[in-house]
Amino acid sequence: MSSRTVIRGGLVITASDEIHADVLIEDGRIAALAASGTPAAEAFTAERVVDATGKYVIPGGVDGHTHMEMPFGGTTAADTFETGTRAAAWGGTTTIVDFAIQSVGGSLRDGLDAWHAKAEGNCAIDYAFHMIVSDVNQETLKEMDLLVEEGVTSFKQFMAYPGVFYSDDGQILRAMQRAADNGGLIMMHAENGIAIDVLVEQALARGETDPRYHGEVRKALLEAEATHRAIRLAQVAGAPLYVVHVSAMEAVAELARARDDGLNVFGETCPQYLFLSTDNLAEPDFEGAKYVCSTPLRPREHQAKLWQGLRTNDLQVVSTDHCPFCFSGQKELGRGDFSRIPNGLPGVENRMDLLHQAVVDGHISRRRWIEIACATPARMFGLYPKKGTIAPGADADVVIYDPHAEQVMSAETHHMNVDYSAYEGKRVTGRVETVLSRGELVIHQREYTGHAGHGVFTPRSTCQYLN
After folding, report:
1. 297 near 216, Cβ under 8 Å?
2. In terms of pTM, does the model score above 0.85?
3. Which three-class secondary structure state does DSSP give residue 227?
4. Are 247 and 223 in contact (CB under 8 A)?
């Protein structure tokens, strides 16, 4: 049985175009578009008609950086694949790329299988995986080739967290050399973790234990230094590089310089760095713990440089690094010692709305909003044009977005499985009204109509900026 839906009368916005058009969906895919009111559009027939008059019709968001059910610091991220993907859908995101973790001493295969087991049958929207490589050795390098073949085409390494995820320069170089051969993309957490650990130890010895010191020891210069080093290692290896969660203006400058030199270097930032700052980390009564993440929040003056980087395309993607820990019982593990606060913020539900607010505020254009939140992450991670656009043949991952609705962000009303909002009380203009995932209604006029198990694992091709 074929199923058809028509979305009528909306302003269709993609990374390249804005057009008042009707969209025909057939069997889970976009079948056709036609300018609204034309005979071609009026010829579209379907069992289900969605009226999008006065609304935007946009591709479902692609969040290329989430951590559902991630173990960290003696606890585990509060969102499961079920709760996290449901919250993503509420926020207009229809695909996540989560991180499977290789344990030190374990294989990539064991790590990937463990994440498949967590996600399979539990997701409301489609999902894919990156692979965290914590233990580079000859076997790991061989496994990287096999993972690329089965659609896990990006590998994350850490210059931070010695003793947990940390790779030294030699391990990083070997993995980059392998990626240069197999077409994989190395993603880098760029902070000098060895130096940061010295500063952590010294701060705690001075009795500086409050959350704000988390930001003070993880210095912007140590993010910039690691970013520079990662770029040079990638250059030596002849490999592309994607730097995750860029927060410091000095790191943006390193990326811009590399790109001006013609290197295949890409950068991602996150809403928390665009909208929050060290002012939040300094909130009294341990409230600052809610905002502990790495890279850390920076002083407010960094925000302008991040927005500029997004406008000049020195930063290409906004992902969330969604890694939620409840304040009660989880963030509180670090009372008296900021280094024990689990690192991570909730945000998978807020990204599309915050970036629309950036359109309202004049930081970016509507098309750039779709580019950095949908199209570029889809291209970066080998999902385009199946994901990230509205065009014939694409998956019918479509969001009806009300650009005039106003909302107040709050833990009272969000759907993430966490007891606080990083944006509590923030007023924004714009709200998701209806979400389709592969043609199925997941959110229908602000009601959740989806179900766990609808979302499927989506193998990826290699980075499409390198083809």
Report:
1. no
2. yes
3. helix
4. yes
